[in-house]
Amino acid sequence: MRSRRVLLQFDYGMLRDVALNRSDVERESAKLFRQIKFDDGFILAIKLRRSVMRISLYQVDAFTSRLFSGNPAAVCPLEEWLPDRTMQAVAAENNLAETAFFAPQADGYLLRWFTPTVEVELCGHATLASGYVVTNILAPERRAVRFETLKAGPLNVTRDGDLLAMDFPAWPTEPQAADPRVFAALGRTPAKGFVARGRTLAVYERAADVAALRPDLAALRRIPDASVIATAPADDSVDFVSRYFAPNHGVDEDPVTGSAHCVLTPYWAARLGKTRLSARQISPRGGELMCTLRGDRVTIAGRAVLYLEGTITV
Length: 314
Hints:
Helix content: 10-25%
Distance between the termini: 30 Å
Radius of gyration: 25 Å
Order of helices and strands: HEHEEEEHEEEHEEEHEEHHEEEHEEEE
Structural class: alpha+beta
Number of strands: 20
CATH architecture of the largest domain: Roll
Largest sheet: 17 strands, mixed
Number of domains: 3
Shape: globular
């Protein structure tokens, strides 16, 4: 305590928010004030400043080779984990479809993803963006990175020139009827409907049908955990098109959804009779993906572009 008292004497002129009597001190939380009692009974209370952590932030447009298209993701590399509530607050502040956080673990990283409202089990474009940050910025000598996850298992991202390829699980459709309320909310009845990993897959006959969808997002929000992938065969240079709506997860329409292609790839591979597929997500921003079915795994590949690099304080 003696050395603390000397420090206060030297720095007294620089102190802010000083309370000079007992009543002022007692009105404040002990977490906010440090109290020093002198020999004559005088109490000096110093308001403690909240410690500030600075975290690197990268915003990457994923599944595109052009800025201002694809799906923007925020990526925050960490030295150690923040509290969950802090990561969720950062994601809400970023207000992007996903914010990815990763911290070192063994020879790779542990990776987690947050929308503005919830943590999710898997996110493709933010994984691609994280792989871009590691192999192009943090460790450009690396050509591959392994991410461990809480629910989706290990995910590997490899870089070949400007192309990034992700190793993801395949999620085939399940023998379960889709909720007709979801199709009603889409405003257009699909030719076929399925369920896969809790997502509704709505299959239309033409790409124009998918492009024309104007879903009732309020109605989708009233269906617990509803999210829907709308897809159709393409009529140009790619094999199929899609859109993805997830208002219950804080994302009305996702610009480009890597995880949706864990469902789309096995479906279209079986329907078209081939394992290598090209895809386009026809949201307003749009994006391009190359998908390969490998048994119970899917390779999802695309490009990424760095838009922003900075620092946040929490």
